[in-house]
């Protein structure tokens, strides 16, 4: 049997493309819990544009923003954009990665303050951009944190679907043989983490999307069938 560990939940639609793979077992491991923090901040949507880089960022401040009529924001990822729109927010633009979002910010002219709603372990790309471009008004607001779960030793997998560097970090000590597992990475920051942790075999999706990762996995499974 071929074992695949996903570090994010996969639904039935996700797994449909593997319905004919009777020798593949999927297991989901949640590497951490999300703890939302008390937010004591004077939100001012008339003068601010909120940066949401994850769905958890949207969840973390929805109670604070529900009393305002107009919320302008920018997002990373289609699911984050969809959730923001479901909350009634106006999404000015979206990027698939932080680098793409920064490029769009560079071409966006506004006198408003960008407020980055983020986790305590957020990546530095966005903050670094604003630090280097101090003429653009910017605030960082930490509204949630990830609490790592204790993960016991697991049976050796052939593949791991890694959706973030922190998720991969939380599980790597439980892998018996790092040379016998292939990591399917959602993006470049996760693949860089593979290098840091000593994984030799990893593949990066062409765009940071779960569907793209699953198609990559399918390709790898098909290659195994031919060997």
UniProtKB/TrEMBL annotation:
<dbReference type="InterPro" id="IPR039793">
    <property type="entry name" value="UROS/Hem4"/>
</dbReference>
<dbReference type="GO" id="GO:0005829">
    <property type="term" value="C:cytosol"/>
</dbReference>
<dbReference type="Pfam" id="PF02602">
    <property type="entry name" value="HEM4"/>
</dbReference>
<keyword id="KW-0808">Transferase</keyword>
<feature type="domain" description="Tetrapyrrole biosynthesis uroporphyrinogen III synthase">
    <location>
        <begin position="48"/>
        <end position="213"/>
    </location>
</feature>
<dbReference type="GO" id="GO:0006780">
    <property type="term" value="P:uroporphyrinogen III biosynthetic process"/>
</dbReference>
<dbReference type="GO" id="GO:0004852">
    <property type="term" value="F:uroporphyrinogen-III synthase activity"/>
</dbReference>
<protein>
    <submittedName>
        <fullName>Uroporphyrinogen III methyltransferase</fullName>
    </submittedName>
</protein>
<dbReference type="GO" id="GO:0008168">
    <property type="term" value="F:methyltransferase activity"/>
</dbReference>
<dbReference type="GO" id="GO:0032259">
    <property type="term" value="P:methylation"/>
</dbReference>
<dbReference type="InterPro" id="IPR003754">
    <property type="entry name" value="4pyrrol_synth_uPrphyn_synth"/>
</dbReference>
<keyword id="KW-0489">Methyltransferase</keyword>
<dbReference type="InterPro" id="IPR036108">
    <property type="entry name" value="4pyrrol_syn_uPrphyn_synt_sf"/>
</dbReference>
């Amino acid at each position: 049997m071929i074992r695949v560990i996903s570090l994010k939940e996969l639904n039935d639609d996700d797994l449909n493309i593997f319905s004919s793979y009777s020798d593949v077992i999927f297991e989901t491991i949640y590497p951490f819990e999300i703890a939302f923090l008390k937010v004591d901040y004077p939100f001012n949507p008339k003068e601010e544009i909120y940066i949401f880089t994850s769905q958890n960022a949207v969840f973390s401040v929805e109670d604070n923003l529900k009393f305002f009529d107009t919320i302008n924001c920018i997002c990373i990822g289609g699911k984050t954009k969809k959730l923001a729109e479901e909350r009634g927010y106006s999404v000015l633009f979206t990027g698939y990665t932080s680098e793409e979002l920064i490029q769009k910010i560079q071409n966006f002219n506004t006198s408003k303050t960008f407020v980055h709603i983020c986790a305590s372990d957020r990546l530095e790309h966005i903050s670094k951009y604003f630090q280097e471009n101090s003429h653009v008004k910017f605030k960082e607001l930490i509204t949630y944190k990830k609490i790592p779960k204790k993960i016991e030793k697991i049976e050796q997998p052939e593949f791991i679907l890694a959706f973030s560097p922190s998720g991969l970090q939380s599980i790597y000590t439980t892998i018996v043989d790092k040379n016998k597992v292939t990591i399917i990475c959602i993006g470049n920051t996760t693949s860089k983490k593979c290098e840091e942790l000593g994984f030799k075999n990893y593949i990066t999706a062409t765009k940071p999307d779960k569907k793209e990762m699953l198609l990559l996995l399918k390709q790898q499974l098909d290659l195994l069938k031919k060997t």
